[in-house]
Every structure is written in C-alpha cells, then in structure tokens.
Amino acid sequence: MEQKNTSQFDIPALGICLLFAAGTRLIPHVDNFTPMESVSLFGAAYFSRKWWAFLAPVLIMYITDFVINNTVARPFFPQTEGIVWFSNYMIYNTLAYIGITILGITFLQKVTASRVVVLSLISSVLFFLITNFGTWMSEISMYPRTFSGLMMSYAAGLPFFRTSVLSTLVFSVMMFGSFSLLKRYIYNTTAFVR
C-alpha cells in the first residue's frame, strides 16, 4: 500500500480524517458503531510524533463522551450531580485505545491493506476484552465478581462486539483509503506510494 513516513502535506489530511472520526461519534448511530479503534490504528500508522497517536483517540473520546454524557446519555448518570466530567468506564476505554495504538505502532510500520484488516479485527477483540472486563470490575456492575460473572459480562457484550468489528473494518477502510487517496490525488504526491 504505502510507506509510513509523514510530511507537512499530511497534516491537513490527517486533520480531516480525525475530525470526520470525531464527528461520527456525535451523530446518531448504532451502539458501538464508532471509529475509535480505527482512529487508534490510523494515528499509530501515520503520526510521526507517536505521543499524538496515543493522545488523539483519548482526546476525541473524552471530548465526545463529555458531550454525549451530558446530553443524550445523561440519564445513565443519576448518581452524578451537575456536569458529568468523568466516568470509570473511560479508564478501560483508554487502556483499550493505548493497547490498540501499541499494536498499530508495532505492526503498521509498513501500511498494507491486509495488515489494516487483520489489526482492525484484533483491535475489536482487544477492545471487547478490556472494556467488558471493566464493566465486570465496575462498582455498579450487575455481574457477580466471579469467573462466571465475568463470562456473563462477555456474553452480554457479544451483540456490541459484532457491531464493533463491522465498524472498525468499515472506518479503517474509509480512513486509510481516504488518506491514501487524499495524498495521491489532492496533494499530487507519489512519495508515499510504492
């Protein structure tokens, strides 16, 4: 597909792709059909300053969750008075995005379609395992703190997992494909294409 290096021409294209990803979280969508795992992989592949690869998905998640948690999801926080600044589930989401970013940095040093697809699938599995573990560990969890309770948490998350896999594949293809096309046609550069 293409080499990993970024240049000054990539900054607007990266910005467009990331703004698109953040915007899709704020429009009505099917549960777990979001681009966040794809954002983690995308940043890992293309940000030359790798701290941005870690920061971008966490920042996008926090800002969009802040909006969502204080508007449409506000009824899910009856114990919180005033503005919902933070919720414990964010810790596990952040851990998942960090893990996905590490996978991307490790395995997307050369971006290929097959690597993007395989890492999208692995990312969905990692996100599912970490966040459902977090649901089980939560102080307000409905699941008993036993192995069987953990398995109940994973079983309850399976419908969301299917949506997560599909969304990660769709958004990864869109983000990586769009970025490649933007570089090739808008900026008329072939330095990144083999």
Keywords:
194 residues, mainly alpha, two-stranded antiparallel ribbon, 6 helices, globular, disordered C terminus
Tell me about this structure.
It is a single chain. By secondary structure, the protein is an all-alpha fold. The chain has one domain. It contains six helices and two strands. The protein has helices spanning 10-26, 36-46, 50-69, 89-107, 113-137, 147-186, and strands at 2-3, 110-111. A two-stranded antiparallel sheet has the order 1-2. Helix 2 (36-46) crosses helix 6 (147-186). The radius of gyration is 18 Å and the shape is globular.
Q: What is the strand content?
A: under 5%
**Uncertain residue ranges:** 190-194
Mean pLDDT across the residues is 86
**Overall helicity:** 55-70%
The radius of gyration computed from the alpha-carbon positions, rounded to a whole number of angstroms, is: 18 Å
Order of helices and strands: EHHHHEHH
* Tally of DSSP β-strands: 2
Shape: globular
Total tally of structural domains:
1
Q: Strands across the major sheet, in which order?
A: 1-2
Q: State the separation between the terminal residues, measured CA to CA.
A: 7 Å
Structural class: mainly alpha
The count of helical stretches stands at: 6
Major sheet: size, sense and barrel closure?
Answer: 2 strands, antiparallel
Itemize the secondary structure elements and their pairings.
Layout: E1 2-3, H1 10-26, H2 36-46, H3 50-69, H4 89-107, E2 110-111, H5 113-137, H6 147-186
Antiparallel strand pairs: 1-2
Helix pairs in contact: 1-2, 1-3, 1-6, 2-3, 2-4, 2-6, 3-4, 4-5, 5-6
